[in-house]
Structures are given as structure tokens and as C-alpha cells.
Design goal:
Structural class of chain B: alpha+beta
Shape of chain B: elongated
Order of helices and strands of chain A: EEEHEEHEHHHEHEHEE
Helix content of chain B: over 70%
Number of domains of chain B: 2
Largest sheet of chain B: 4 strands, antiparallel
Helix content of chain A: 25-40%
Oligomer: heterodimer
Number of helices of chain B: 10
Distance between the termini of chain B: 28 Å
Chain lengths: 223, 313
């Protein structure tokens, strides 16, 4: 599903965020991405989500080399990738329903379909009944789940999460991670960046460990 | 994602456009004062050249419409007897394009001259009346410039006519002046059109800055540039359209205020000329021009600024 081939990323100014990173993630696997702040976790996710371009090396999603994409193709690739952010990035002046519906509206889905799928997505994160609420009236955990509902409403093949449990207490964190595990069970490839080691140990999933931009040894079964 | 059937896509697309258009309008009414101010600036920028143009058109009608009809003055030979002059007048009356012919005897002309010129004492020194008898020929309304010129030639060729003078020079001068004014108005209109583009552009630049977060999120989840651009394009369109409508209104009010004094001036010239307040074409052109300029400005501004917004922090 995701393949990095000798990827390096150097930001303008000389900071080298990733150095010669290579790995492959099979479809339907849930993987943790860990490392200290500044180790390159966010950069790695941004390369997959097409928010950054690698300085050298190749990033492939579904055998497609992202370097060959034209600028105007990027939105269509992003629609197959659900991204979840630590700071949720919700539209605070729109209802929960409108926030979750946004990817479908962008994709030009008919009204009936939008209605059905938004409800299904909200149901899967346990927020059915909160459609008319504004995100600002929800708790941090609920807002994060709205973000997850928005990420999965399009039924993406790939879910990326950057510190999804960063601001949550352990109990809520477990709930959120269990949610991701359920999506991976139905075939979604999930990559979660986190430095919550307790969480990683509990889940017993493959881990990509970054240090200073380099990928350290794999823990667990990585092909 | 599988492509949806074309009719579905069309229907969804149309509904989406309508929704975005209305939402953009709603957005404007949420900040009524600042929206109104922007629209008013656009209105003034559009109404000013359009109103001036309308004035020039009106003046052109005064000059070119032969209103009050042009006159030909026939200066007869000095020794022409009144009876002969009257005969001639009768003959001229039968010619085409002639509305009326007045005979002014040398005595009457001298009396009028004495009265008006203030040279009564000088005139009293004269032994004999130096003024010729004159026939003032009023042309019919709607007579063309060429008709008048032909008539002038015909009359000048008549015996007893010394000189046939067509009072057209002032009309031609006025028309030349009007042409210059009209060109000036055009240049002004172009400059103000650029002004409208800049106003709408600047307003939208602020709107984009205010919704930066939203734009980033849309880009993150796969919104195309066209999708993100659309609401801003409609905002530009609305600004232009509302500005144009207000401009039309301003123009009508301004010309209506002028109508009274102009009519008064016209009556002083024995004319029943009235200001043409507006032509439906001009009035509908103004909102159209506004809408197009707004759309154009929005397109340029939004395209330029959207590229600069990258969703990755």
C-alpha cells in the first residue's frame, strides 16, 4: 500500500528531516510511527499526504509514484487518504454534520448519499445524535472523533493520524486507538504517528521507529 | 471512486452552484455595512462614467437633433423691393424641408440693431440704412445636414439673393467638443474599471485571509482549486452586480436631479428639450459590467492567493 524507497527530505534552510528512509506497508495493516519530537514523524506523514515533496527518493501509494502526479491531480489522490490531526482541524462555525459531509460535498455526492454516509460515519465513531452540534460545544475526545468520522466518510484505503491521542486522557486514547484498529480490520491501511509508548505496547502492532530522520530497526512483523 | 452518471453529476453540480451562490450572498449580508460600502464604491465608479456618458448623449441630441431647427439666413440685395422680397419668400416656402420663412425689412432690422447693439447714436449718424432685407428660413425638424447644405446652395443661386448663410458652425463646434468629452469619459471609465477590479480584489484578499484555516482544511481533504475558488468567485460576482444595480439607481437619481434645471434652460432657448433620464440598455449594462468586473477581479485575486496557501504548516 505504502512504499518508501530511499526517501530523504531536506527543508529549505538545511534541516534534514528524513534521511534515506525505506519501508513497505502492506494493505490493511495498522502500523505505529514513533520517535521523539523532531524525529521526522510529521514529515513522513506529510510526504504520504502530498503536503510535502521528497528531496530525493520515491514515495509510492498503491504502486503509484507520487512524484509523477501533476499539481491538479493532487486533490483527487488526497480524497483516497483520510488524515486525522492532533488539533482536529475542524470548521468551528459549521455543524458536526457539515464537517463530516465536507469530503463528500467536495466529491460531488448527491444529497441522499451524503446524508446516509455521514450518519454511518458518525455511527461508527459513536457520535450519532450530535449532527446538529457545533464542534466547539464538544469535548476534546468528541472533536477528535468528528475528525475521524470526516476522515473515514469517503471510505479511504489509507488512514493517516498525526498524534491523534495527544491531548486525550489514557481512557479516551484507548477508545480512539481501538476505533482505528476496527478500521484496519475491514481492510483500511492505518498509519498512526504517536509517542505514547504505553499505547504502542498495548496494541502489539508493527512499529516504525524514527530517530534523527533515520528509520531504526523494525519492531514486530514488517515485511 | 467510481464516476457518477452524467445527469446525476449535472444535477448535483447545479444544486451545488446554486447553494454556493446563495451562501456567498448570505455571507455578504452577515456584514451588511462593510458589504454595502464596498458595493457603493463600485456603484460610484460605475455610475460616474455612465452618467457622464448619458449627459454627453443628451448634449449630442441638442446639437445633432436639429431641435429648434437650423435656420438659413438669406441676405437679399440692397435694392430688393419689399414686394419682390415677399414674392421670393412665397417661392421659398414651397421648397422641401422649409418650415417657415420670415421677412425682416431693412427698417425692422435697423430698429432691432439700434435697440440691441447700444450703438443708437452711431446709427443715427448714417445717411441711409446699410442693412439688406433678410429672409429667415426655418428648416423642418429632422432635416439632414446634407438637405440643409443642398437648400443653401439652391437658395444662394437665386437672383436677388446676395448671401445664404447656414447657422451650422456652432453645432459642428459643439459636436467636436462633445467628441472630446466623450473620449475623456471613456478613458475615465477604463481607469475606474481598473479601480473596481482593485477594490473587489482587495476585499477578497481580506476575505481569503480571514478564511485561511477553512481553505487549508478543504485542500487537505481533497478540495480542488475550482471547488475552493467557487464561493469567492460568487462573492466577487455579487459585489459587482449589487454595485452595478446601485450605480444604475445613482445614475437615475442624479439625472433626475438635473432634469429640472436642464428643462428650464431649454425653455429659455424656446426649446421643449428634455433630458433623457436613462435608456434601458445603459441601465442593464451597468449591472452586467459590474458583475463581469467583479468576477474577473475575483478570478485573478483568488487564483493568485490560493496557490500561496499550502495546507502543511
Amino acid at each position: 500500500m505504502i512504499r518508501f524507497v530511499d526517501v530523504s527530505k531536506r527543508y529549505p534552510g538545511g534541516h534534514e528531516a528524513l534521511r534515506h528512509v525505506s519501508f513497505t506497508l502492506p494493505p490493511g495493516q495498522m502500523t505505529f510511527l514513533t520517535g521523539r519530537s523532531g524525529a521526522g514523524k510529521s514529515t513522513l506523514l506529510k510526504l504520504i499526504a502530498l503536503l510535502e515533496r521528497p528531496t530525493s527518493g520515491q514515495v509510492l501509494i498503491n504502486q503509484r509514484n507520487l512524484a509523477t502526479l501533476r499539481r491538479r491531480d493532487i486533490p483527487f489522490v488526497r480524497r483516497h487518504i483520510g488524515v486525522i490531526f492532533q488539533d482536529h482541524r475542524l470548521l468551528m462555525d459549521r455543524t458536526v454534520f457539515d464537517n463530516v459531509a465536507l469530503p463528500l460535498v467536495i466529491g460531488g455526492a448527491p444529497r441522499g448519499e451524503i446524508d446516509r454516509r455521514v450518519r454511518a460515519a458518525l455511527d461508527s465513531v459513536g457520535l450519532l445524535g450530535k449532527e446538529r452540534c457545533l464542534p466547539i460545544t464538544l469535548s476534546g475526545g468528541e472533536q477528535q472523533r468528528v475528525g475521524i468520522a470526516r476522515a473515514v466518510v469517503n471510505k479511504p484505503l489509507l488512514l493517516l493520524a498525526d498524534e491523534p491521542t495527544g491531548n486525550l486522557d489514557p481512557e479516551l486514547s484507548h477508545e480512539i486507538i481501538d476505533l482505528f484498529a476496527r478500521f484496519s480490520e475491514v481492510g483500511v491501511t492505518v498509519l498512526i504517528a504517536t509517542h505514547d509508548t504505553a499505547l504502542i505496547e498495548r496494541m502489539q502492532r508493527p512499529v516504525l521507529h524514527l530517530e534523527g530522520g533515520r528509520l531504526l530497526d523494525h519492531d514486530g512483523p514488517l515485511p | 471512486m467510481s464516476r457518477r452518471a452524467l445527469p446525476v453529476r449535472l444535477k448535483v453540480g447545479l444544486a451545488r452552484h446554486l447553494q454556493v451562490a446563495l451562501a456567498s450572498l448570505g455571507e455578504l449580508t452577515r456584514r451588511p455595512l462593510s458589504s454595502l460600502l464596498t458595493a457603493l464604491v463600485i456603484a460610484i465608479a460605475l455610475a460616474l462614467p455612465a452618467g457622464l456618458h448619458q449627459l454627453v448623449v443628451n448634449l449630442g441630441k441638442v446639437a445633432g437633433g436639429w431641435d429648434g431647427a437650423p435656420t438659413l439666413s438669406l441676405f437679399l440685395q440692397l435694392d430688393t423691393q419689399p414686394a419682390a422680397a415677399h414674392d421670393l419668400a412665397d417661392r421659398v416656402r414651397t421648397l422641401p424641408n422649409v418650415a417657415a420663412v420670415d421677412y425682416i425689412s431693412p427698417e425692422a432690422a435697423l430698429a432691432e440693431f439700434r435697440e440691441r447693439s447700444g450703438l443708437a447714436e452711431v446709427i443715427d449718424l448714417l445717411d441711409e440704412n446699410p442693412l439688406p432685407p433678410v429672409l429667415v428660413v426655418q428648416l423642418t425638424r429632422g432635416a439632414e445636414r446634407t438637405d440643409a447644405a443642398r437648400l443653401q446652395a439652391d437658395l444662394a443661386a437665386m437672383e436677388a439673393v446676395d448671401l445664404a448663410q447656414l447657422d451650422l458652425a456652432w453645432v459642428e463646434r459643439l459636436q467636436a467638443i462633445l467628441a472630446i468629452i466623450d473620449r475623456t469619459v471613456m478613458v475615465l471609465a477604463l481607469l475606474l474599471a481598473v479601480g473596481v477590479v482593485l477594490i473587489v480584489g482587495n476585499t477578497l484578499r481580506l476575505a481569503i485571509a480571514g478564511r485561511r484555516e477553512e481553505i487549508e482544511i478543504m485542500k487537505l481533504i481533497g478540495g480542488t482549486d475550482a471547488f475552493i475558488r467557487r464561493p469567492f468567485l460568487y462573492t466577487g460576482l455579487w459585489y459587482g452586480l449589487i454595485g452595478g444595480l446601485l450605480g444604475s439607481l445613482m445614475m437615475v437619481v442624479a439625472l433626475a436631479l438635473l432634469a429640472g434645471p436642464v428643462h428650464h434652460l431649454a425653455t429659455l432657448y424656446q426649446s421643449d428639450f428634455r433630458l433623457t433620464l436613462f435608456e434601458p440598455v445603459t441601465l442593464s449594462l451597468l449591472p452586467l459590467a459590474g458583475a463581469l468586473l467583479g468576477l474577473l477581479a475575483a478570478w485573478f485575486t483568488v487564483s493568485r492567493h490560493l496557490r500561496a496557501i499550502h495546507p502543511g504548516e
